[in-house]
Amino acid sequence: MQKQVSALKAPSELFDPELPTSRELMAAICCVATQYALKPSHELALLASELAHKLTAPEYADTKLIEDIAERLVKQWQVIVSEYGAEDNWLMATHNTLQ
Question: If exposure means fewest CB atoms within 10 Å of the residue's CB, which of 14, 23, 33, 90 is most exposed?
């Protein structure tokens, strides 16, 4: 059963009304992750990380499983996003002309 956002209660700032259920949000994450697998980019990693972070909103916490998955996805995508930053730092440190 999907949780419904009450008209009397303001949704959290993580909730996305264009993706009103955890099922729809998970589908969006899967689509972005597939695109990332086909052609990795920093932009897709950031988008997946943002979507995973949205999944932590209370409106999507249908079950404990969704909460656990959201937590894991956030951690995994944060690592991927941070690796892009580490690559940039390595590139700058090894190329004198870029400094």
Answer: 90
How far apart, in whole angstroms, are the C-alpha atoms of residue 77 and residue 67?
Answer: 16
Q: Cα 99 from chain centroid?
A: 32
Is the per-residue pLDDT at 79 higher than 60? yes
How many C-beta atoms surround the C-beta of residue 34 within 10 A?
A: 10
Report d(CA 57, CA 11) in Å as an integer.
9
pTM above 0.90, yes or no: no
4-39 pLDDT tens trace: 554 447 888 899 889 899 999 999 999 999 999 999
Please state the φ and ψ torsions of residue 89, each to the nearest 5 degrees. -65, -40
The whole-angstrom separation of Cα 56 and Cα 13 is 11
- Give CA–CA dist 77/35, Å, rounded: 14
Coil vs helix vs strand at 63: coil
Tokens 């949780």, residue located = 3
